[in-house]
Amino acid sequence: MHYKPAEIEPKWQAAWDKEKAFKTSENLEALQGKPKYYILDMFPYPSGAGLHVGHPEGYTATDVLARLKRMQGFAVLHPMGWDSFGLPAERAAMRSNEHPAAITRRNVDNFRRQIKRLGFSYDWDREIATSSPDYYRWTQWIFLKLYEKGLAYLAEVPVNWCPALGTVLANEEVKDGKYVETGDPVERRLMKQWMLKITVYAERLLEDLEGLDWPEGVKEMQRNWIGKSIGAEISFLVDGTKEKLTVFTSRPDTLFGATYCVVAPEHPLLTQIVSAACRAGVDRYVKEVTQKTDLARTDLAKEKTGVFTGGHALHPVTGKPIPIWVADYVLMSYGTGAIMAVPAHDERDYEFAVKYQIPVVPVIQPKEGPMPEGAAFSGDGRLVNSDFLNGLSVEEAQKKMVEWLAREGKGQGRVQYRLRDWLFSRQRYWGEPIPIVHREDGTIVPLTASDLPVELPPVDKYQPTEDGKPPLARAGAAWLDVTLPDGAKAQRETNTMPQWAGSCWYYLRYLDPKNENAPWNPKAEKFWMPVDLYVGGVEHAVLHLLYSRFWHKVLYDCGLVSTKEPFRRLFNQGMILAYSYRDHDGKYYHPSEVEEKEGEWVTKSGGRKVVSQIEKMSKSKLNVVNPDEVIDEYGADAMRLYEMFMGPLEQTKPWQMAGVEGVYRFLHRVWRLAVDERNGELAGRVVDAPGTSEPELWKLLHRTVKKVREDTENMQFNTAISQMMIFVNEATNTKTVPREILKTFLRVLASYAPHLAEELWQRMGETTLIAFASYPSFDLSLCVQDEVTVVLQVNGKKRDEIVVSKTLGKDELEKIALSSEKMLKFMDGKPAKKVIVVPGRLVNVVV
Ligand code: ANZ
Fold this sequence. Notes:
CATH superfamily of the largest domain: Valyl/Leucyl/Isoleucyl-tRNA synthetase, editing domain
Radius of gyration: 32 Å
Number of strands: 37
CATH class of the largest domain: Alpha Beta
Shape: globular
CATH topology of the largest domain: Isoleucyl-tRNA Synthetase, domain 2
Structural class: alpha+beta
Largest sheet: 7 strands, mixed
Helix content: 25-40%
Bound molecules: ligand ANZ
Strand content: 15-25%
């Protein structure tokens, strides 16, 4: 008659499934009049390793909120799906020679099973997978829209080519000339690639960040990625030629301090600038550096290198010649690929000028004090050594210089973005085929909507062909050769789209996932968009979130969506770390193989000393926590509760099985509150009583309803749970528990521990699901309470403070203190030797 989650949980999951309790009606009419709430998780890549305790962290948070909102009467859309194209499945296919689709299907089944075990309230009728043809058909359709708008084009671009993988890699995937995952060498190559003109949207992507309820850090990362820079283009005549060398500068005010110019090694004017005497040296230098990636070239810490070209540029104001150098710290891909160098005020130029003994001419006098010695000065000040700019502030001088340049026809103001067009093709198999064919004369023909989907053809191998073509080139003539309506022969494009493509718009397909005539129904789009809350990891702060915002804006311009932005509110959950145990030789031990003895960690067999560390979970460190094992032992409700109780959702925090035990015990207490464990009947203390009995418990109930609701809405799940714990302790200590109180509490608990809540709800005589019950209201006048601030100490030093009820008992105080993030941090993983509690004043933990 004890609490047995393994018996309760599958039963209620089946009941929810059977009643389609969380299905969101497709009939929009039926939803009219209700406020809507679209709550979205970043869908997972279904890896072979299965779910990880990091996944359910965000999923539990959204589930708690989704359930709360439903009980509050919102029309809630809460879907789940799979970002199922990608390299790992393709790699597995290469090893096992099984089709990536089969591998992916198996992984998806496992993920779905694991997710379902947690009792999440997804509308499974809306499940999607980006790798299924009825989904990617529409990804291809959107690509055609981009093409129609002139936003997709083929270009010869320098790419990071990995010969071992036979594919192009993104800059972020390459470090020190090697693929970060495998260490395979990567080289720079010019290749014809599909590009998307995200740069056209740079300004809007920047501006529209302002209206979003997103973490400031994420917005800042997007701003930096877009990298808007306001400055000017200035033209220098190349001495002895008619050519103009145009530079981009963010500091036109410093023009009189320019003592040399630099062109990128790939600059088209270089061959004309370079003198006969310098040619051999320049050629050698260029050959050497163009293999490096942009990232390696702009590394600030790297020693600057360059060579003199023998050519000179004429200063646009004074007409004086200044030397032109070629150096790899100037990139062809930014601005104009050439700069005027002002060593007195730019750090990189300063370092370079000192190394090559080029003059340094200061033109900005700092507001206070002298010019710094041995360094560039990049601060504000007044102009000196600058002719008609002398005496002006930096800002005034910039304005005046830009006006002068425009008047003289020697330059103009210019806005520059760091954002580059998006390299959109991959030489891989397991991705969306690009819906394009090439005529024999080389012209490009986009397919039409009726040709879609272009399905992935079977191939004998997933490797590139021997002559370096993408794997789709193996497909054979039946797939590759196409006859166009005009009878002309053409060949299919063999590149595929990058993994980001499918996730750029999946939130729209959920609105109408089975539509065969359109990617979504416009009415559903108008009703549900934008996404009200999007929860996921901060690792997607830039790429996914920028790419999907870009596609969304294109769709907006096509009149296909009604909002400018897809995700109104974004929340990043913190990473879950784990304890690992390692001995002196670097060997790792599974947590079950070690124990604590006299304050030190040792192996159980042999007593070898080990050090415990908090690290990212990884197979090699033997510290990965598998949700299946946690559920087997404690149940889904305990797992959900622990995920939310570990600490603030946004914080990085370590997984601790002792913490799971703690919430498991709490769930036991809830069970015993309602159930007599001797006979399984309703506990005798639960009584039908008038509203006047147990007045203190009533008050606490109202406070609990208020706090849990507010904290949940503010995504402060851990403090909401603390409040429920306080309530359950009090209720356990009162003589009787009025039935109404218990039932109200169950409705509060229901979004956190839904299985247990359903079970007890039924045992109290209810015949409909608690999932369909309404959220309880509270009476504000009953919520007022005397509160005190209690100081929390570790070894006598104050580490935190909490505001609690004056009447809170010793045990509760101790529990709260021992679950405080800050306290745990200062306890450093050590157990408490002694806990001193002075109610209403302080808790001191001795470790
Ligand atoms: C003269 C100058 C003087 C500069 C000064 C800076 C400080 P942001 O702000 O990031 O846009 N630059 C321009 N094009 C470049 C390229 N292709 N590769 C490397 N560096 C380049 O940076 C703009 C500044 O970076 C430009 O302004 C230029 O140096 C350099 F006191 O021009 B500046």
